[in-house]
Design goal:
Elements: E1 8-9, E2 14-19, E3 22-27, H1 29-35, E4 38-42, E5 49-50, E6 55-61, E7 65-69, E8 74-79, H2 82-85, H3 89-92, E9 101-105, H4 108-112, H5 118-127
Antiparallel strand pairs: 1-2, 2-3, 3-9, 4-6, 5-8, 6-7, 8-9
């Protein structure tokens, strides 16, 4: 499984990358592999507020539907509209074109402590 060292992770298998003042969010390679072929992604609206560890959307695959959990709190400033017509991007490129939302974090410094680094996330998925 691909676990990039420059990202932070949740125990629910989302990732987050801080790009300046914006947090980019998606699901991990492990998560997309476990889900199977993604067929639909339900995302919040631009302007919505997400809360760390709370659901912000749903990803549906041929196997199951799963909630998406926010790795950080803040305002949604962009959604990946390409996923509406091409949800398979989540499978093909989970850390690139398969990103889901961009958030303006409200408390990145404090909330980062609740996230896993790459090494801790690798240990988590090895136990599953």
């Amino acid at each position: 499984m691909n676990v990039p060292a420059d990202l932070f992770y949740t125990e629910e298998h989302e990732w987050v990358r801080l790009e300046g003042e914006v947090a980019v969010v998606g699901i991990t390679d492990y998560a997309q592999h476990e889900l199977g072929d993604v067929v639909y992604v339900e995302l919040p609206q631009v302007g919505d507020h997400v809360t760390q560890s709370e659901p912000f959307g749903v990803v549906e695959s041929v196997k199951a539907a799963s909630d998406l959990f926010a790795p950080v709190s803040g305002e949604v400033i962009e959604i990946n509209a390409a996923l509406e017509d091409a949800p398979e991007l989540v499978n093909n490129d989970p850390y690139g074109q398969g990103w889901m939302i961009k958030v303006r974090p409200s408390n990145w410094e404090a909330e980062r402590a609740n996230l896993l680094d790459a090494e801790a996330y690798r240990r988590l998925i090895e136990q599953e």
